[in-house]
Amino acid sequence: MSDPTEISSTAGTTSPSADSPRSHSVHIRTLIALIIGSTVGAGIFSLPQNVASVAGPGALLIGWVIAGVGMLSVAFVFQVLAVRRPHLDSGVYSYVRAGLGDYIGFTSAWGYWLGSVIAQVGYATLFFSTIGHYVPFFSAENRWISALSVSLLTWVIFLALTRGIRQAAFMTTATTVAKLLPIAAFILLVAFLGFSWDRFTLDFWGQDGSLGSVFDQVQGIMLFTVWVFIGVEGASVYSKQARSRNDVGRATVVGFLAVLVLLVSVSTLSYGVLTQEELAILPDNSMASVLEAVVGPWGAALISLGLCLSVLGAYVSWQMLCAEPIALMAWDGLLPRRLGAVNRAGAPWAAQLVSTAVIQLTVVIFFLNETAYVSMVQLATVLYLVPYLFSALYLVLLATRGRGVTHPHAGTRFNDSGPSVGRADNRRHLFVGLLALVYSLWLFYAADLTYVLFGALAVAPGLIPYVWTRRRARERAFNSFEWCVVAVVLAAAAYAVWGLATGALTL
């Protein structure tokens, strides 16, 4: 593969404008690698145990059909918006902001950022628990050793990221290629050496245990399937730096299809090696245990190596993506401008510093509370759903009324101007938007209410810097639609605080 990026630096720039802080120079191959690198992370290695804990093979296949169609519609939402609104350079965040107002855009970026922070801690937890299986020094009994190791890894990556996006993108591309080899080996070895059709169909609908109805099983795996797809919008986040706007849409779809094939193969084939009950009690790195059952200990070692490479690559990708929402909001005046500062290497060092510090704080909180990896997954996924939901709603508004909710910055680059769309295309876009909107709402319904409430509690503090920045700029804080969202967020956050105080809610 050729040099993954040709991103030019902005020498001497400390506070770039929102219009052109960096050049359009990221190749489509790098965008696809970024999607696969940030999507295929820790989730795929724990997927056999995660889905088997709540569903049998039949429900799993139904769930993958729903997740495949739903997440493909979400991917198409970002593809369509990239074409219909080419002047919006900040991807997920700017689409929502332009269509639904400043605060909804801010909340989407804030939720995306916090989800990325929590995902970082989840990735690192799985990384060191896997190492601990082979090196007792990092075992679960030495949680503070792992916490210190996670902290050190986080700050080392921060220092690497401050050297510029070119180095970070190269690290992402290299680890993406390296980690796909063990996953491919797992699929081939299990398919040809370990898969048993009789075992796969033994309890096809999961009725022998306590999994509940097929509907309950499908509902139970929804957030796990979304978690392993998180990152499919990665190309959209970097749309400002893509060589071609069409590359953003193509990379999103190609990356999605590649990831879908990997996820379905790994989760489905595992049921042909071990029964649902056996899969459900495996450790977090359950893919290693499945391959060990087929070829022996060397298979587990191979997958563990792949997991470490995968998590390291995803860790770099997400720590890089973490800073983008903070920097973009600073450039657009929704956060203090200083947070958008860029160094001589073209890296948004201030946003990266804030993100790294919050990751460090989250490491301490989660390790003190001994929060399980699965709980981190559920909470992060709920936060990621916020920009998915509102992006789909914006596309529906575009297709039905040609514009979003009235925006306070009419006439700026955040207005609803864009290329004209024919009736046939508009109907297709409406179908895609409605499908993604219904799917996003279904995911909130399928989620554990506890994580939805804690998600609202995580989003609520963002009101403080947002309102402060709006007041300082002497601009209106909320439009009428945003006031409704604020009321819902504050009510849910208040309930979460009550639940924490009384012990009714815990992570």
Automatic annotation (TrEMBL):
InterPro entries assigned to the protein according to its UniProt record, in alphabetical order: AA/rel_permease1, Amino_acid_antiprt, APC_superfamily
Keywords of this entry: Amino-acid transport, Cell membrane, Membrane, Transmembrane, Transmembrane helix, Transport
GO molecular function: transmembrane transporter activity
Annotated stretches, region: Disordered: 1-22
Signal peptide annotation: none
Bilayer-spanning residue ranges: 26-47, 59-82, 103-124, 144-165, 177-197, 217-239, 251-274, 294-316, 347-368, 374-397, 429-445, 451-469, 481-501
Descriptive protein name: L-lysine transport protein
